[in-house]
Prior knowledge:
Elements lengths: L4 H13 L9 H6 L19 H8 L6 H27 L4 E4 L7 H11 L2 E5 L4 H13 L14 E5 L6 H16 L1
Parallel strand pairs: 1-2
Antiparallel strand pairs: 2-3
Amino acid sequence: ESMTMETRGEYMDWLVTSNLVKDLKQVDSIAMSVEAVDTPYFIKVDAIDSRSIKDFMEAKGSNCTDAHYVRAVMEAHAFRSKVLLDDVFDFYGLPDKLIVDGGASSSTFILESLSALTGLDVYRSNCAEGALMGAFVVTGIGLNWWHSFADIELPKQATLISPLDCDRDLLLEKFKKWKTLVEL
């Protein structure tokens, strides 16, 4: 959850305020309606506002559709998450799976992209707010409501998300290009 807080809200707000989507439940189907290409659809704009990405694309003479903008935002979120996950993996080592919760976990497109980018199985948790559940459990143990984690029936992991149906090498190459553009 914490890795997405600073970006997902801004991206999603931009999609709605720019009238690219009326309902955030549409983003996955819209993103998937655009054929994947081997280059990023757009480069990073430091401050997302009501005009930044769309005006940038139009100024460059792009003939992208609204669906391209939606896919670009969703890919950027998945790519940014991969950058942050890579840092975590470098420090703690590579896990055998990812279990995700929170707002971004509602996007199957993002989770499929993360699975393809990391090569890991990604599970969407049944518990939408894992951080809150964790704080509750730790507090309960601290207050002696329970004596150990074994005394608590926690929500079980839920849905296995399959990797995005794509060429993984091509997606990783696209990620590298995106990362280079963002670092400029």
